[in-house]
Design brief:
Number of strands: 8
Largest sheet: 8 strands, antiparallel
Number of domains: 2
Low-confidence stretches: 162-174, 176-185
Order of helices and strands: EHHEEHHHEEEEHHEHHH
Distance between the termini: 20 Å
């Protein structure tokens, strides 16, 4: 199975931040043997989505919300990131319809089904339900603004699998809050984890610097901008201040060999670029920015490769 070439930004809220009965349900879920473990969860998500989309007609949005979640533990606290598959499917389908001509969209989803999905989503909105998912997805690249909330020493890099040259670099491990040895069989992955407080502080510090030097987002959509940072700050601001924030390279790790993945210092390069902007060191800023673009533009270009 090939995972989607996508990266993910996730928020894990402490289980105590959820109202009842969700708090009790997620607490029991965290100790359940049936739930997919962290290293397998993305694969399980993908298989479920593939089964829905290969049906005839495709199941664009599941009939019920997912009861699964990503789970982390830090000290005595359980942190939960619900999959929210139904909400995320609605939001993704809404983007799909806006980004493609009606004829193109109809080739993938029959118009009667599209209308029903849209009608169901409108009913959900009118009911006052939350439209803020705990997971953001980016296909074929990691947006530059996603690097800002993290620090280099918050990285967990795992290469290969046991018995095949497996190596673990840096900190963090499966289902840990950011520090400690691995507790389960590792998978090829690159993840950053930080506290919500640190994430918000770093974005708040970067915003005036970016606004002064790069503006609000004119030009290439992939570049860093104050507008995109502000959108990210608003999203993070909607969650519990005690939460954890995770950047997961997801399936993108399979587009990069071990040497390239080990040498990926995107978070550190972003931090140096922002420091250069703040100090007026244009040469340093440009050098770091060029390194980031040189790494990620070719990866994103594969989306349109034949």
């Amino acid at each position: 199975m090939v995972l989607p070439y996508a990266a993910y930004l996730r928020v894990y809220e402490p289980v105590t931040a959820f109202p009842e009965p969700a708090r009790t349900l997620w607490t029991a879920y965290a100790d359940s043997r049936r739930r997919p473990r962290r290293i397998h969860a993305l694969g399980v998500e993908h298989r479920e989505a593939a089964l829905r989309m290969t049906g005839s007609p495709p199941e664009v949005v599941p009939e019920r919300e997912s009861r699964d979640a990503y789970v982390r533990r830090l000290e005595d606290m359980i942190y939960v990131c619900p999959w929210e598959t139904r909400l995320r499917s609605w939001l993704a389908f809404e983007r799909f319809r806006h980004e493609h001509a009606a004829g193109v969209a109809a080739a993938f989803v029959p118009p009667p089904l599209s209308e029903r999905v849209t009608s169901d989503f409108e009913q959900w909105k009118r009911a006052g339900r939350s439209l803020q998912p705990h997971i953001l997805t980016s296909t074929w690249h990691v947006p530059l603004d996603w690097f800002v909330p993290f620090a280099r020493n918050e990285r967990c890099l795992m290469l290969g699998t046991p018995g095949t040259g497996y190596r673990e670099n840096d900190a963090t491990a499966e289902e840990q809050g950011g520090h400690g040895p691995a507790t389960a069989a590792p998978a090829r992955t690159l993840i950053y984890v930080t506290s919500m407080g640190e994430a918000r502080r770093r974005i708040a510090a970067a915003l005036p610097v970016v606004r002064e030097n790069l503006g609000d987002g004119a030009g290439e959509v992939y570049l860093l901008s104050a507008g995109r940072l502000e959108t990210l700050a608003r999203w993070l601001g909607g969650f519990d201040p005690r939460a954890l924030v995770e950047l997961d390279y997801g399936g993108l790790v399979h587009l990069l060999d071990d040497r390239t993945l080990s040498a990926d210092e995107s978070v550190a390069e972003m931090a140096v670029a922002l420091t250069g902007m703040e100090r007026g060191e244009a040469a340093l800023t440009v050098a770091m920015y060029k390194r980031l673009l040189a790494r990620w533009r070719p990866v994103r270009a594969r989306e349109t490769a034949n």
